[in-house]
Structures are given as C-alpha cells and as structure tokens.
Amino acid sequence: MPRNRSTQEGGRAADSEDGNTGGVNFVAHAVVAHRERPEAAYAFGAMVPDLLRLTRRAPLEPSRHADVVTAGIAAHHRADAAFHDHPTFKAWMATLVDAMPEPDRGARAAAHVAVELLLDGVLLDHDAAGAYDDALAWATDCIDGTWGELVARMRVGDIVAAYATPEGVAERVAGIMSRRPRLARLGVTPGPLADAVRAVEPAVRAGAETLVTTVSECSLM
C-alpha cells in the first residue's frame, strides 16, 4: 500500500532529542490503548512513537488497518500527557531521584525513563500485558520489512527482558543516555541507578494497576 503519511509522522514529537529521554513505556501504552479501544492494531499504534528509534524511522506500512494504527498513535500522545502529569508518576520519579547519589539533572533524566521501563516490567511480570502480546501477534501478520524484524525481536522478549530487574533497567537506561550526546555528558552510570530503581520498585509494583487504570480513564475524556 502507499506510504501512509499520518501513520509514519504521528510519532515524531516523541522522537526528538531535546535534552530529555522521551517516552519508552510501550507496554504500558499498549495496555492503556486496549482499554480505550480493544483492537490489536490500535494498541500497536499506541506503541509506535516509542519504537521509532529502534527502526531508524523506517516507513510503517501495515497491510491492513492503517487507519486504526494512526488512531493508536494519536492515543499514545494523549496517554503520555496523562502519565507524565499524574501525581503518582511524579512521586515515583522523585523517589528515584532522591535515591541517587546526586539529585542533579542526570538523575532527573534517568528517573523519567527508568520509571517507565520499570512500569513495563511490572506489567509484564503481573501478566497484565495481554494487549501487548495481542498487538505483536497482529503486527506479525500485517507488517514486514524493518518493522517486521523489530516485531519478531519483541515477540521473543529480546527487548523487554531487561525490564525484569533493577539492574536490567539501569543498564538499559544508561545505554539509552550514552547514545544521546546531550544526555551522555550527564554521567549516569548503571550501579547507582540500579540501587535507585530498587528503592522505587515496591511503590511501582503496588501502584502500577491503579495508575494504568487512571490513565486509561483520562485518555477517554
């Protein structure tokens, strides 16, 4: 099918390098989107903005339901606003920053993405991410090329395996930051960050379902 301009461009706002890490909690986005509109293509679309970097911005050309994917991309941005403004999300970030050796800009940047990855890991651990699995199953049948290769990696857990432990989250966050010049110079290292992730993990485990439910309700407004 011809390249769908809206499908490809809808995620660009989340992919800019403006001094912060951007959003990367694609599992949570799939869960929230599915509660808003229980269609696998919609949940996949809600993950697209967080996956653009992993495809090097390759064209996304689903063989069917492209309009539903585009609608899911729009849902991603609504949910992001609700996530990032929510007092619980902000409290988790503050806990992590306070647990870092220095509560500086590097700690704040790391806290944002670490909380998002940890939330995804908790949802997967709680078996609350059926929408994520359904979205990948749909994409396996409807998407090929670079995006299809990424979906194959995601289906075997290649990307989210690190989210299962504080050490894995810290390594992934440090890697993300090291590849972005404005963030690499902030000097965040995995060891202290893993300790900080460990400090906030109980709160995230206790509050993940409530936060996802609240964000889902906000997205419907």
Describe the structure in brief:
The protein is mainly α and 221 residues long. Helix content is 69%, strand content 0%. It has one domain.
Characterization of the model:
The chain has 221 residues and is an all-alpha fold. It has one domain. The protein is 69% helix and 0% strand. It has helices spanning 5-9, 26-36, 40-51, 66-85, 87-99, 105-125, 130-142, 145-155, 166-178, 181-184, 190-219. α2 runs antiparallel to α3 (40-51). The longest helix is centred in the C-terminal third of the chain and has 30 residues, at 190-219. Residues 1-6 and 9-22 have low confidence and may be disordered.
DSSP, total strands: 0
Structural class: mainly alpha
Tally of helical segments? 11
List the helices and strands in order.
HHHHHHHHHHH
Question: Taking Cα atoms only, what radius of gyration do you get, to the nearest Å?
Answer: 16 Å
Indicate the mean pLDDT. Answer: 88
* Number of self-contained structural domains: 1
Please give the alpha-carbon distance between the first and last residues. Answer: 33 Å
Spans of 5+ residues with little confidence (pLDDT < 50)?
Answer: 1-6, 9-22
What quaternary form is this?
single chain
Main beta-sheet strand count, sense and barrel state = none
Helix content: 55-70%
Estimate what percentage of residues fall within beta strands: under 5%
Overall geometry comes to: globular
Write the layout of secondary structure elements.
Layout lengths: L4 H5 L16 H11 L3 H12 L14 H20 L1 H13 L5 H21 L4 H13 L2 H11 L10 H13 L2 H4 L5 H30 L2
Helix pairs in contact: 2-3, 2-7, 2-11, 3-4, 3-7, 4-11, 5-6, 5-11, 6-9, 6-11, 7-8, 9-11
